[in-house]
Amino acid sequence: MFNLFTSISENEARNLSPVTLAFIGDAVYSLYVREKLVLSTDFNTGTLQKLTSAEVSAHGQSQLLEKLQPLFTQEETDVFKRGRNAKKSTRSKNASVAEYNRSTGFEAVLGYLYLTGQYQRIAELLSAE
After folding, report:
1. Disulfide engineering: 103 pairs with which of 18, 32, 58, 87, CB 3.0-4.6 Å?
2. pLDDT tens digits for 74-125?
3. Is 42 considered catalytic here?
4. If you average pLDDT over every residue of the chain, what do you get?
5. Are 65 and 126 in contact (CB under 8 A)?
6. What per-residue confidence (pLDDT) applies to 29?
7. CA pair distance 30, 56, nearest whole angstrom
C-alpha cells in the first residue's frame, strides 16, 4: 500500500534521475502556489489558473531562483546543478533554454527535499520569496 508523504533516504533520492526529482518538484511548487493564492485572494478559478501559470512557468521559477539560490545548502546546490544540466526529452515553448534548465534545477531541489521528508526546509525556502 502507498502512503502519502512517504520519505526516502537522501542516498535513495540522490540515486534518482534529476528529471524524476523535477517531476515531483513541479507538483510540489504548483500545489504551494495554488494554496497560497487560494488562501490569500478571492479570485475565481480562471484568474487563479492564470496567476498560477505565471508563477509556475519556467520564466517565473527562474526569477524566483535568483532570490533562493544563495540560500541553498551545498547538497541543494549539487541537486540543482544535476537538474539544471540533465538531458531533458522536452523543450519549453515559452521560455529560453537557460530559463527552462534553471527551472528544472529548481524543481529538482524541491523534489529532493519533498521525497526526503524535508518539508520544513521547503517552507523556509519558499517563504523567502
Report:
1. 58
2. 999 999 999 999 987 677 677 788 999 999 999 999 999 999 999 999 999 9
3. no
4. 93
5. no
6. 97
7. 6
